[in-house]
Amino acid sequence: MHVLADPLRLRIITLLARETLCTTHLVEETGARQTNISNHLRVLREAGVVDTEPCGRFTYYRLRPEVIEDLAGALGELADTARVTAETGRKRAC
């Protein structure tokens, strides 16, 4: 969750969901500096959210959909728990 909380990383993930891109493309699309994009891509790569594909002197990045699906499943379970809590009126006494 922390990895996806940054607005620029979320933008990068959104772009990578649509197509495989290199750093140059992401700089053009976001307007962020190359070093900033590279740092965010490193975080995403280390978290296992993106895969890399070398292509000549460029590195392309692609989103790993199974990671997003796992996160969506975990959030869905959390929402189900919150729904049950709200329906039962469960609260801890002070």
Mean pLDDT: 92
Termini separation (Å)?
30 Å
- Sheet with the most strands? 3 strands, antiparallel
Report the C-alpha radius of gyration, rounded: 18 Å
Structural class given helices, strands, pairing? Answer: alpha+beta
Shape, per Cα inertia axes: elongated
Strand content: 5-15%
Going across the major beta sheet, what is the strand order?
1-3-2
Unreliable parts: none
Order of helices and strands: HHEHHEEH
Number of separate strands: 3
DSSP helix count?
Answer: 5
Specify the helix fraction band. Answer: 55-70%
Q: Can you characterise this structure?
A:
The protein is an alpha+beta fold and 94 residues long. The protein contains five helices and three strands; from the N terminus they run H-H-E-H-H-E-E-H. It has helices at residues 2-5, 7-18, 23-30, 34-46, 65-88; strands spanning 21-22, 50-55, 58-63. The protein has a three-stranded antiparallel β-sheet. A hairpin with a 2-residue loop joins strand 2 (50-55) and strand 3. Helix 3 crosses helix 4 (34-46). It starts with a helix and ends in a 6-residue tail after the last helix. The mean pLDDT is 92.
